[in-house]
Amino acid sequence: MRSFEDDPTLKDLLASDQLDRLNSLLTNLCSEPVRLSEEASEGSVPVEFNLETIGWLSGGSVQQRHAAANLVSFIMMFVAKYRLAANLHHDTTEASYAELQRQNDALKASEARYRELSEQLQNRVDEQVRVIQKNQQELFESARLRSVGQLAAGVAHEINNPIGFISSNLRVAEDYLEDLGAAIPGTPANRELLDDFRDLLAESVEGTSRVARIVADLKTFSSIDQADYSLCNINDLLHSAIHLVQTEFSHTLRISERLAELPPIEGHPARLSQTFFNLLDNAAQAIRDSEQDPAKGQIVVQSKREGNSIQIIIQDNGCGIPETDRPRIFDAFFTSRPVGSGTGLGLTVARDTVRAHGGQISINSRPGTGTRVTLDLPTESTGGNHG
After folding, report:
1. Which pLDDT belongs to residue 77?
2. Residue 73: enclosing H or E segment and its boundaries?
3. Which residues 6+ apart lie within 8 Å of 231 measured at CB?
4. Structural domain includes residue 253
5. What span, in angstroms and rounded, lies between the C-alpha atoms of 32 and 20?
6. Statement to judge: residues 128 and 206 lie in one domain
């Protein structure tokens, strides 16, 4: 039974036969055809539930439509109360059954003693296996981060210097162009040539600035010259990850940023950057894999302060995660992408990184609708492993 964690739709509140019956009753009540549906039409009035529009009512006179809309909103409130009462009854029944089951288990405790001992031993073995796997993943991730850092350091060193003098020379060339324009005859052909040359120089200056920004984002992403754990600006790390993903997808992604002012937190900037990049890359891939028009795909990145923690939300309207895959999304090396397209470690590393910072990660997804990933990071150090 759905608990409506998100705002319900009209279909969630009323089954199709119930909606048909309601439309028939409204028609009889108004003496004219009246229809409630999820699509708005000319002259229709909204029907609200919890301050959200769940449907549109059309037909009848203006006064009848408004009266019928208020009546339906009133009815929906009691439908929701009924669902709440039903859920409460269900939970109470489950609790009673759990208590009876506990008493039954207590009576069988003596018979299950050896089986329980065997299960404990098996759990210890499983725990040791998980520890070994986790250490292997951390070693793999640490090696990969070191490689990325070394690569970024080389890129920053090799590109920044030539980009600097190229940019400087281009700006000097712009000054020379002005002097040249004053020195040559002002014929239409010369003016057109100078305008084209000026546009070419402006585009080249913008291109060098863009390369410099990419190098700066890559440096922030890999956290060159930073200690393992330091004060992190979450919004800066998000900006860098967004720019890198945009570059990877040729700046075709629609990414909306809703970043609130946040306090710095103590953390591992390279691992947090990698986590944000992995989640954004997953969102971009989900949009690419969806059946909708890619131009309608959108990623929303939000950050905000929630009490003693920072909350980061990355939401997309892509293909979503199939229900059969959800129990395994955090398993190491599990991936739904084609062979060679992913390592299957992105969400595993993200989960372990968030846990290492004393935080939590949750994922809500609906096939064909999209996915929302929520990260909660404490604003104060939890005294975790800083190694």
Report:
1. 79
2. helix 62-107
3. 264, 265, 266
4. yes
5. 15
6. yes
Which residue reads 């609708």 in tokens?
369
State the amino acid at position 148 in one-letter form: V
- 99 and 207 part of one domain: no
In a domain, 111, yes or no: no
**In this structure, what CATH number is given to the domain that contains residue 197?**
1.10.287
Q: Which residues of 216-236 are buried (b: 16+ CB within 10 A; e: fewer)?
A: ebbbbbbbbebeebeebebbb
Q: Which two tokens stand for residue 179?
A: 């002097």
Indicate the number of domains in the chain: 3
Please list the residues that pair with 316 across neighbouring strands. 299, 371
CB atoms within 10 A of CB 299: 23
- Per the structure, the complete domain to which residue 134 belongs is given by 123-225
Radius of gyration for the alpha carbons in the chain, expressed in angstroms and rounded = 30
DSSP string of 106-164, one letter each residue: HHTTTTTHHHHHHHHHHHHHHHHHHHHHHHHHHHHHHHHHHHHHHHHHHHHHHHHHHHH
pTM strictly above 0.70: no
Note whether 379 and 287 are same-domain residues. Answer: yes
N- to C-terminal Cα separation, the chain: 44
Q: Distance between CA atoms of 238 and 100, rounded to whole angstroms?
A: 50
Question: Is 343 inside a domain boundary?
Answer: yes
Q: Other CB atoms closer than 10 Å to residue 347's CB: what's the count? A: 22
Mark whether 183 and 141 lie in a shared domain: yes
- Do 137 and 268 lie in one domain? The reply is no
Task: Please identify which residue in the block is written with the tokens 């040559």.
Answer: 184
Tell me, yes or no, whether 54 and 165 share the same domain: no
Identify the pLDDT of residue 43.
Answer: 83
Are the beta carbons of 263 and 379 closer than 8 angstroms? yes
- Which residues 6+ apart lie within 8 Å of 267 measured at CB? 229, 230, 232, 357, 377
Confidence at residue 18, expressed as pLDDT on a 0 to 100 scale: 85
pLDDT mean by block of 10 residues, the chain; 387 residues: 62 83 84 84 83 83 82 80 77 80 78 80 86 73 59 66 78 79 81 84 81 64 56 90 82 88 89 88 86 78 92 92 81 58 66 88 89 92 50
What residues are paired with 309 via a beta bridge? 306, 378
For 186, half-sphere exposure in the C-beta direction (CA atoms, 13 angstrom radius) is 3
| Cα–Cα nearest to 370, from 276, 259, 263, 291 | 291
**The residue count for the chain:** 387
